Prior knowledge:
By secondary structure, this protein is of the alpha/beta class. 32% of the residues lie in helices and 24% in strands. The chain has helices at 20-29, 48-54, 78-90, 109-115, 136-140, 148-157, 166-177, 186-204, 221-224, 266-280, 336-343, 346-349; strands at residues 7-14, 36-41, 66-69, 98-102, 125-135, 180-184, 211-214, 253-260, 282-290, 296-303, 306-314, 323-330. The chain has a seven-stranded parallel beta sheet with strand order 3-2-4-1-5-6-7, sandwiched between helices. A five-stranded antiparallel beta sheet has the order 8-12-9-10-11, covered by helices on one side. The longest helix has 19 residues, at 186-204.
Amino acid sequence: MANLEKLPVTVITGFLGSGKTTLISQLMKNPGGKRLAIVVNEFGDVGVDGEILKGCAIPECPVENIVELANGCICCTVADDFIPTIEALMALDPRPDHILIETSGLALPKPLLKAFDWPAIRSKITVDGVIALADAEAVAAGRFAPDVAAVDAQRLADDSIDHETPLSEVFEDQIACADIVLLTKPDLAGPEGVARARALIEAEAPRKLPIIEVAEGAVDPRVILGLEAAAEDDMDARPSHHDGHDDHEHDDFDSIVIDIPEIADPADLVARIADLARSQNILRVKGYAAVAGKPMRLLVQAVGARVRHQYDRPWTAAEGRRGRLVVIAEHHDIDEAAIRGILIPEAQAAE
């Protein structure tokens, strides 16, 4: 029971746009009596998710308890960023009862778990559990759940070729590392889609896992906090495609930041982002836009061609009214000139 003396950490993983930030926002509002601290690891240098969570700050999780690590994955910057961040959170007064880590949507969770074995923190902290979020609609469509039997057959025929895509490997590693899977956006998938997604995840998981449907991040904190999984001591039960070598998981992905001038019509921007996903194979777009005549900043988040937008807060005088969008794609799909041409109309680009 020694782990009870350690500060518990929950790792929240999941594919791009699966709802990690929404889940954490809900936990902040309903922390189950715990004082929370949060680490957000973004891909790209525009901290969208951290900004959203800071806007939700409450006495049980004040702004100073929310830390962004926006340049590089945590596991690649353990000594420089991750360890000092954890130590700073543990030194807060009052000390947090629980730390939540939102990983990048492109992250493999197992290298992060290995970071908890660093001497500076391993005696003071424990991984309470790994929560994997999966978009029910995407999984039901089979986007991140390949036919394992067919892949095995191909490997038997030629074991020098890796027939799996980077996206499928990310998805599989996140499921394999999890203690609980949250099936998000069940309303978009419908009952049949949810059943199909559940079956695919069960087939993918290396062991029996609880799979819970969650809409808009609403889940009882007692279900996902306080698991006492000590995941850092349970690595063998969490297989990874990358076991045995040190390749970094982000090598197959790129992100670029596009500065966009003030826009007149949010609907036009939404249409352009949707077009971008279809014509350029873009995985994710997130960031902000300034809308002419509106004092509020427009928050934009897209997963493929599915785009959500809302006004989140007023612009500050120091910011200037210009938008910034982070665009994430697989490495071979990044064409900055084409992306810029779609996002910024010719008339605005000439200004």
